[in-house]
């Protein structure tokens, strides 16, 4: 470059994945900027206590063991230690149109939990509080209006007209990533013709720290366990993925009629539903960038890939992107190379593309399998679930893979000792 850029690395998008990437990169000693449209005060504001279903944020995530490990290594976990979250120790999955049923239990894996359900705003707040204690230049309340390249220099332009340059731009700006589009990075995508209905419910019985998921021909229904500040366990976040016409019908119902259908769909596993929050519906679309990198830019998280939410793996794939990118950039930092070094970026893409494509293919396969009503396939899937449930070692290997328990690499191994830490 002609002259030193404003930043070594500029991360665009301060969601869970983008903020984690910015934090980890700063901890390695890079000069990092983070651009986020929301304001710092709104992102780091204290979370109000829960008094009813309406007080939970509709957006929640199932954080895997591997993702928790990454957040602990970056000292984010202590920032949310006193905040509400709900560990789930069991997961029960069954076919609503058959007899197949499978249950996963953390005790069989000698693990404290299978994962953690957390409102997105709580994790984002913890990340921003941690960013404050680290060398990240946070440009909050700022939106990106363009991407530019001039000779060997590259960067972005803010809505204010300010131009910023960086050796590497990390696009973490979501599924409709404008950076990906401006940089001419094509995607393969298709519409599921489904919508995901999200809300919070209060039930007569405790969820027993169990994630419940029922499959039907029109889509899966998940009850994800939540916990209040005082330890109440009768709240759950629901994610009900349905064919578009059925989702629209359900959204048009009043609360009483909706609860009646929801009780029937979950087969009253948790007793009667006493209250339901406002409902939100989101269209479902699978999207995968043909390439994750180009000179001076790398895609992470939803900017690179979006998948069906039926297994709750979307954000965990994004955290895995971050973990691998940190590992590769740690090597570049240690050996004195630029963060946009092509061979390093190519390794990141090779390491992440295969796993992401495999997960996307698995989710698509599950969706099609349970949508098929042909009798032989119905028999096969139900027999397969019963068979797997009786084969503890195989079932536990699958669960361990989903939890990321095989991920042991530390992203802290090359953190700059002079970088501020909590």
Question: What can you see in these coordinates?
Answer:
With 422 residues, the chain is α+β, with helices and mostly antiparallel strands. It has one domain (7-403): FAD/NAD(P)-binding domain, CATH 3.50.50.60. Helix content is 34%, strand content 28%. The chain is built from 11 helices and 20 strands. It has helices spanning 16-27, 40-43, 65-73, 120-132, 178-182, 244-252, 255-265, 314-334, 342-371, 375-390, 392-403; strands at 7-12, 32-36, 60-63, 86-88, 90-95, 101-105, 115-119, 136-140, 144-150, 153-158, 163-171, 187-203, 210-215, 221-226, 235-243, 273-276, 280-289, 293-294, 297-299, 305-306. Strands 5, 6, 12, 13, 14, 15, 16, 17 and 20 form a 9-stranded mixed β-sheet that branches. α8 (314-334) packs antiparallel against α9. It is globular, with a radius of gyration of 22 Å. It starts with 6 loop residues before the first strand and ends in a 19-residue tail after the last helix. The relative contact order is 0.18. The model is unreliable at 407-422 (pLDDT under 50).
Brief description of this entry?
The chain is of the alpha+beta class. Helix content is 34%, strand content 28%.
Provide the low-confidence segments as ranges: 407-422
CATH superfamily: FAD/NAD(P)-binding domain
Coarse morphology: globular
End-to-end distance: 34 Å
Broad CATH class: Alpha Beta
User: How many domains in all?
Assistant: 1
CATH architecture title: 3-Layer(bba) Sandwich
**SS-derived structural category:** alpha+beta
Give the oligomeric state: single chain
Sheet with the most strands, sense and barrel status: 9 strands, mixed
CATH fold assignment = FAD/NAD(P)-binding domain
Write down how many β-strands occur, each being a DSSP E stretch of 2 or more residues: 20
Helical proportion?
25-40%
Mean pLDDT: 86
């Amino acid at each position: 470059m002609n002259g030193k850029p404003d930043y070594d690395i500029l991360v665009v998008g301060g969601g869970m994945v983008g903020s984690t990437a910015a934090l980890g990169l700063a901890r390695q000693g890079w000069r990092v900027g983070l651009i986020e449209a929301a304001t710092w005060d709104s992102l780091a504001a204290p979370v109000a206590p829960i008094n009813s279903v309406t007080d939970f944020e509709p957006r929640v995530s199932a954080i895997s063991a591997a993702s928790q490990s990454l957040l602990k290594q970056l000292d984010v976990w202590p920032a949310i230690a006193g905040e509400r979250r709900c560990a789930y120790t069991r997961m029960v999955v069954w076919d609503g149109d058959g007899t197949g049923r499978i249950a996963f239990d953390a005790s069989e894996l000698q693990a404290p939990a299978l994962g953690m359900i957390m409102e997105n705003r709580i994790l984002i707040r913890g990340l921003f509080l941690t960013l404050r204690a680290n060398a990240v230049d946070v440009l909050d309340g700022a939106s990106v209006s363009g991407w530019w390249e001039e000779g060997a220099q590259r960067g972005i332009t803010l809505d204010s007209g300010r131009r910023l340059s960086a050796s590497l731009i990390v696009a973490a700006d979501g599924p409709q990533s404008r950076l990906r589009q401006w940089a001419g990075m094509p995607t393969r995508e298709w519409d599921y013709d489904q919508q995901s209905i999200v809300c919070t419910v209060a039930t007569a019985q405790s969820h027993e720290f169990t994630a419940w998921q029922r499959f039907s021909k029109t889509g899966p229904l998940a009850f994800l366990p939540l916990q209040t500040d005082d330890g109440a366990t009768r709240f759950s976040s629901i994610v009900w993925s349905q064919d578009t016409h059925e989702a629209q019908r359900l959204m048009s119902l009043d609360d009483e009629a909706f609860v009646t259908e929801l009780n029937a769909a979950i087969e009253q596993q948790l007793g009667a539903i006493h209250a339901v929050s406002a409902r939100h519906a989101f269209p479902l679309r699978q999207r995968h960038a043909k390439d994750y990198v180009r000179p001076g830019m790398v895609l992470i998280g939803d900017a690179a890939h979006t998948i069906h939410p039926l297994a709750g793996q979307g954000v965990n794939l994004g955290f895995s992107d971050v973990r691998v990118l940190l590992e590769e950039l740690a090597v570049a930092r240690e050996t004195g190379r630029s963060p946009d070094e092509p061979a390093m970026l190519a390794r990141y893409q090779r390491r992440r593309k295969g796993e992401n494509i495999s997960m996307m293919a698995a989710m698509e396969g599950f969706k099609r399998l349970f949508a098929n009503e042909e009798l032989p396939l119905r028999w096969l899937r139900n027999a397969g679930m019963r068979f797997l449930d009786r084969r503890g070692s195989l079932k536990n290997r699958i669960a361990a893979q989903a939890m990321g328990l095989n991920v042991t690499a530390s992203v802290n191994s090359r953190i700059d000792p002079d970088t501020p830490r909590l």
